């Protein structure tokens, strides 16, 4: 509905036809008795209507396993943490592919969105993005460790931050253990 509202030139019949085509492609994600089955097709169509830059970012963010900071999301996508790049996250949110939780200052991608978008990753892109994600997680863990060693209020905050980033740390640890031995993977594991 939001796509039709934002694109008055888009005919309803054309949109429904495109939605039907997406439903055929995503049948594996649908449950035959689920009345919400068209949600996956709608998400795929929303993705297809994005500019290529936002499509790439959405795909890349789909590998992140839990809510994430702007810095984590952008680093995973191989982007610098700048205002212009952070605005790309807000653009994805305007297309309802991610959500920003203001109180926690974290981004979140729904599991169904993640499932749909992961299908668009090719193997080479997935490998690179997973490596970026691992490196971003290691950098986050280093900051948490430094804060912990500083003691006092910083130490208390570091414990909270560790809890917040725990899902990422576990996911990266499990991923790294499954990778072939290489200097890059060894560095991630050691750090």
Notable features of this structure?
191 residues; mainly alpha; two-stranded antiparallel sheet; 3% strand
Summarize the structure.
The chain has 191 residues and is mostly helical. It is built from 10 helices and 2 strands; from the N terminus they run ααααααββαααα.
Verbal overview:
There is one protein chain. The protein has 191 residues and is mainly alpha-helical. Helices cover 68% and strands 3% of the residues. The chain has helices at residues 2-6, 12-25, 38-48, 52-61, 70-76, 83-94, 111-118, 123-150, 152-177, 183-190; strands spanning 99-101, 106-108. A hairpin with a 4-residue loop joins strand 1 (99-101) and strand 2. The longest helix is centred in the last third of the chain and has 28 residues, at 123-150. The protein is globular, with a radius of gyration of 19 Å. The mean pLDDT is 84.
